[in-house]
Design goal:
With 225 residues, the protein is mainly α. It is built from ten helices and no strands.
């Protein structure tokens, strides 16, 4: 089992800087450091890079629980919040890039774009759902909201579906890459569905045996996954 000091002072800093690397690389390209550049369409390149890393880190966040179930390493859960916040970081920059650089904060252009391209509405919906998850990700908010915190954070699954859907509809010709992410998301959601089904079966069996108190205890002990 990993020691607490190793997690706090080694693993978490390494993960933090690893999550920042795509942004640092994108910034270096934007500033044309070392002969780097963003290509012929820099706004689109920034948009695509931020969006894809937001999706990847979102899937990495969702992968923590299946990895914990497969390996039995409970300390992996300590990385979930950081990965989730970095996913929000990239998705938020993706959204801001669209508003500022792509649409120049023009409400008329944004409304016209939403009407013409519904995938933008789906992406915006995913971002709106992510905001309260990021805001309430602290231990303080978890204590305040109690069981409602868990219910709120279950929406991360819907966010994952919406983001993959957004990516799939955005691609015009080659859909192979979004399909890969859809397959990964499906593989990450299946263990959760199986686990919840198993829990419900246990709860029903306990209730049938007169153990309704035990069933309610099981529900309270469920951790957001």
């Amino acid at each position: 089992m990993a020691k607490l000091g190793h997690i706090r002072f080694i693993y978490k800093p390494v993960l933090f800087f690893a999550c920042l690397l795509p942004f640092a690389w994108l910034l270096a390209r934007a500033l044309q450091l070392g002969g780097l550049d963003l290509g012929a369409n820099p706004v689109e390149e920034i948009q695509d890079t931020l969006g894809i890393w937001g999706l990847r880190l979102l899937l990495a966040t969702l992968a923590i629980t299946p990895l914990r179930l497969l390996t039995g390493l409970a300390w992996l859960l300590q990385f979930r919040r950081m990965l989730g916040l970095f996913a929000f970081f990239y998705v938020a920059l993706h959204f801001l890039n669209y508003l500022v650089l792509d649409q120049t904060l023009s409400l008329a252009l944004i409304v016209e774009d939403i009407v013409k391209r519904p995938f933008i509405t789906i992406g915006f919906s995913a971002f709106v759902l992510l905001v309260p998850l990021a805001v309430t990700s602290t231990a303080g908010w978890r204590r305040r909201l109690r069981h409602r915190w868990q219910q709120l954070h279950y929406s991360i699954y819907l966010v994952g579906i919406l983001v993959c859907w957004h990516f799939y509809w955005q691609v015009k010709k080659d859909i192979s890459e979004p399909l890969i992410y859809i397959v990964i998301l499906t593989a990450l959601l299946i263990p959760r569905l199986l686990q919840r089904r198993k829990r419900r079966q246990k709860a029903r069996s306990r209730q049938g045996a007169g153990g309704s108190t035990g069933a309610s205890t099981l529900t309270r002990r469920e951790i957001h996954e």
